[in-house]
Write a structure and sequence with these properties.
There is one protein chain. The protein is mainly alpha-helical and 139 residues long. Helices cover 64% and strands 6% of the residues. The protein contains six helices and two strands. Strands 1-2 form a two-stranded parallel ribbon. The longest helix has 35 residues. The two termini are 29 Å apart.
């Protein structure tokens, strides 16, 4: 399982010519800007605001670029001989149920907390909330 852009860049269709793609599961390349919390806390308010503004602008402007590249990549995959099936929202819901991913995430959290990472549950809830928000249809 790869994002369509990763599979496209790797020419994965040469080895796995039957491709399932979904806009509901595609995040495109995710580039994270991370830093140590102490470093962040020691930045000036202006620097933190500038970083946040840059992230907001990138997020807004790259969305349409990523949408266009999705369509182009799917077309190129088909031209290269791949059989491409685009999943619909119902297919994705069925996939989510079949994989029991929430159950697996809960088990992972329990294991991490047992190993002393007491924030694992809170962080997983935050990540899930962000993903749910991203996956929700636009109003």
């Amino acid at each position: 399982m790869l994002n369509v852009d990763s599979g496209y860049a790797l020419n994965a269709q040469r080895f796995a010519p039957d491709v399932l793609v979904s806009r509901d599961l595609w995040l495109g390349h995710v580039y994270l800007l991370v830093m140590n919390k102490n470093t962040w806390d020691n930045l000036s308010r202006d620097d933190r605001a500038a970083i946040q503004r840059a992230a907001d602008v990138a997020y807004q402007s790259l969305g349409s670029v990523m949408d266009k590249s999705f369509t182009t990549q799917v077309a190129d995959l088909e031209k290269s001989g791949a059989t491409v099936r685009v999943l619909h929202s119902e297919d994705v819901a069925q996939w989510k149920a079949a994989t029991r991913y929430q159950e697996i995430q809960s088990e992972w959290v329990k294991e991490q907390e047992k190993n002393g990472l007491t924030e694992a549950g809170r962080v997983m809830k935050q990540v899930s909330s962000i993903l749910d928000e991203m996956m929700s249809p636009a109003p």
